[in-house]
Amino acid sequence: MSDEEVEQVEEQYEEEEEAQEEEEKPRPKLTAPKIPE
What we know:
37 residues, 59% helix
């Protein structure tokens, strides 16, 4: 992978983590957080 591809993948993971945090905050966590594969 080139450096640019690695940066794009890292940005995607960061965006997904932020979206999950926003969704889970209002609710008590009943299940373990999902780990992207």
